[in-house]
Amino acid sequence: MILPTTSVGSFPKPDYLTKARAKAARGQMDRAELRALEDRATREAIAMQEELGIDVLVDGEMYRGDMVAYFAEHIEGMIEGGLVRSYGNRYYRKPIVTGALRRTAPITIERFRFAQALTPKPVKAILTGPYTMMDWSFNEHYRDRAALTMAFAELIHGEVADLEAAGARYIQVDEPAISTRPEEIGLAIEAMGVVTRGIKAKTLTHICYGRFEDIYPRMLEIPVDQIDLEMSNSGFDMIEMMKKHPFTKEIGLGVVDSHSHVVESADLVAERIVAAARVIPIEKIYVDPDCGMKTRTWDETRGKLQAIVEGARKARRQLGVSVA
Question: Per-residue pLDDT tens for 106-121?
Fold first, then answer.
């Protein structure tokens, strides 16, 4: 497959699920009822992607509220903290590490198996990475940031190994916080090495909305097969850096802005792909949005994904390559 299309992870939650999650939080809906609606929304997300012709699917993360808080809820040694601002008007409950971290059971395996059973196409398994889990939590137990990061790394490695055993062919470990402190890029690299140790499935990390210039080209040392990057929101300015220091891994090329209501045209998507193909080998390019789509409407999400599929098709023609 040349220029396969995919997405980053989250989709907007349907109104019925948003209302149900609020009721469940107030104790007005039991877990089984909520699970049934989460499964319904997952089916709808998979069906939409198949209809549009996306190649590597995501489950839409219909069962998650926040990418850190969700995992913290399932890890021994963490408790829920107060609300803190994430970005814009988005808030999450920042977890508190109060004791030694322990994964008492697989966290995502059941959800992955459910989504993968809905389609013959590969579904990404998506986790939050050790550096981001550390950076977006309060630490009241481990001696320092490095010790907490490595504790998360060992825990997440167990989840990755279980996902691979469950049949996951693509495992994405999100690290949006990785450029927050450029001086700690070495720690993030070391931790990801623990996460991906011995894993044969294709491994990815997603990084978005950061100062990439502060960690490039060092980020290429992250031990994964693919780095998925926000590109369109910043005007594809990383292309200039890649001309000076070649991008040596596969790339998840963000070609539509997940934080904009504007639905890009297929022609613009094709233009961005062709520009990237001048500096990155085309066989290393996957095409996707800048980030998760949870802040967009369903119509915007569909429109942006459709532009990705049609734009990739146009780019293949312009570059003289076939799908296979």
Answer: 999 999 999 999 999 9
From 33-37, 92-96, 151-155, 246-250, the region with the lowest mean pLDDT:
92-96
Q: Is 193 exposed, middle or buried (0-12, 13-18, 19+ CB in 10 A)?
A: middle
The single-letter code of the amino acid at 294 is: K
CA atoms of 305 and 47, how far apart (whole Å): 13
Q: What is the pLDDT of residue 159?
A: 97
Distance CA 111, CA 302 (A): 23
Alpha-carbon distance 277 to 243, whole Å? 11
Domains in the chain: ranges and CATH? 15-65+108-319 (3.20.20.210)
Q: Which residues contact residue 303 at a Cβ distance below 8 angstroms, ignoring those fewer than 6 apart?
A: 263
Q: What is the pTM of this model?
A: 0.94
CA distances from 194 to 110, 156, 161, 172, 282 (A): 23, 9, 11, 14, 29
Residues 257-316 have pLDDT tens digits of 999 999 999 999 999 999 999 999 999 999 999 999 999 999 999 999 999 999 999 999
Residue given tokens 């319904």 in the structure block = 40
Decide if pLDDT at 139 tops 90.
Answer: yes
pLDDT digits (tens, 9 = 90+) for 79-88: 987 666 665 5
Task: List CB contacts of 97: < 8 A, sequence separation 6 or more.
Answer: 77, 78, 137, 138, 139, 140, 141, 142, 148
